[in-house]
Amino acid sequence: MTEGWPDEALSRDDFLGGQLRLWQPKQGYRAGVDPVLLAASVPARTGDTVLDLGCGAGVAALCVAQRVPGVKATGLEVQPGYADLARRNAAENGTELEVIEGDLTRMPDTLKQRQFTHVLANPPYFDRASSTRVSDDGRETGRGEVTPLSDWVEMAAKRCAPKGTVTMIQRAERLPELLSHAARHLGSLEVLPLIPRKGRAARLVLIRGRKGGRAAFCLHDGWILHEGDSHPGDRENYNAATTCILRLGTPLLFPS
């Protein structure tokens, strides 16, 4: 039993090819491949500290911790039920994850005095000024923007240590807004478009900035996710490189 859900209202899903088995609500916000790709792109090393803002059930933070032994992971989550799921997921997978409940715009005192080597976030994708709210509160909190994107960037930068990184995943259509906010707080900005198939427009982007970075902005060649020109029916067809990230836990490296 997890706060907010009986076990029959949850599913236990495989991530990283079964290296992690994580509980999620059957109805509500459910993590797909996006937080896995985000986690794979964080350039963490053993001994680094990592903060996942809006960690949900802990998918991204736990994927980082699984990939990088010895990383010290923390998650901030505003919804108590999801925070409880993240704690349960960490415990049942034998992974250390500190989960703190709170709103990033009213940062809990336990985080205010701390900085992290890497901060990651998967902010809600949809600006509700131009989109429709969904009925499930958990899913709406995960998908519909209440806290402005500018606040996500500012709070991430504040919690990032000097020379550390902030990495986010977001819809491609919101990249101009995201870059505008990031440029106020971070340097050495770089963007990696995530392209469904060769010849298609990017739907998502990964953006990284460095606290105090001075390198010129870099727009990388896009990462293509799938094989072929179209989807071959009701089955996955990720290309080999993406499959290694999603199933084996290999890093998603920004081109050097």
From TrEMBL:
Entries under InterPro entries matching the protein: SAM-dependent_MTases_sf, Small_mtfrase_dom, tRNA_Adenine-N(6)_MTase
Gene3D superfamilies named in the record: Vaccinia Virus protein VP39
Organism domain of life: Bacteria
GO MF term (any one): methyltransferase activity
UniProt keyword Methyltransferase present: yes
Domain Methyltransferase small: 37-129
Pfam family, one: MTS
Keyword hit for Methyltransferase: yes
Keywords: Methyltransferase, S-adenosyl-L-methionine, Transferase
GO BP: any one term: methylation
Protein name: Methyltransferase
Lineage: Bacteria, Pseudomonadati, Pseudomonadota, Alphaproteobacteria, Rhodobacterales
